[in-house]
Fold this sequence. Notes:
Largest sheet: 5 strands, mixed
Structural class: alpha/beta
Strand order of the largest sheet: 3-2-1-4-5
CATH architecture: 2-Layer Sandwich
Number of domains: 1
Number of strands: 5
Number of helices: 5
Distance between the termini: 36 Å
Amino acid sequence: MLVxxxxxxxxxxxxxxxxEQDGNLLLVDCGIITTPxxxxxxxxxxxxxxxxxxVLDTYQPDAASVEELFFGSNAKTAMLVGQxxxxxxxxxxxRGVTIHEYTPMQIKQAIVGHGGAGKKQMQRMVKMLLDLPExxxxxxxxxxxxxxxxxxxxxxxxxxxAAHDGQEEPGS
Length: 172
């Protein structure tokens, strides 16, 4: 299975592709899609859509793991990121890619083991989990790779629970 992780943003959207092979997670590629600030928002959203389509055309992922919006104190920024997320979700949906959404805390818990992990700790764990020589860069790409890894960990847990629920409890 090939999972596309996405860290949404209007100026910079990170993407990371992770594949499972023989029980190991492997980084296939990662990078960013950028849009220039001097361009109208509608055109920037179109550029994001087109950039994501190029990634989808190149890799044809089986699923996508998209970071949910964390609403901070800046409402304007949150609105722009929300618009970018909308374009991302629409693009993925139109291409038939299964979408899974995770909060920043869920991603941190899946990667580090607790939701209060810092950025550097997350990056070191991504490097270790994928046995990489270097931390993926830039930060937005590393965050997207973490989102992809999160989906693998969440899917494994869901499969274990489903298998357990399908078995009779001892002594029943």
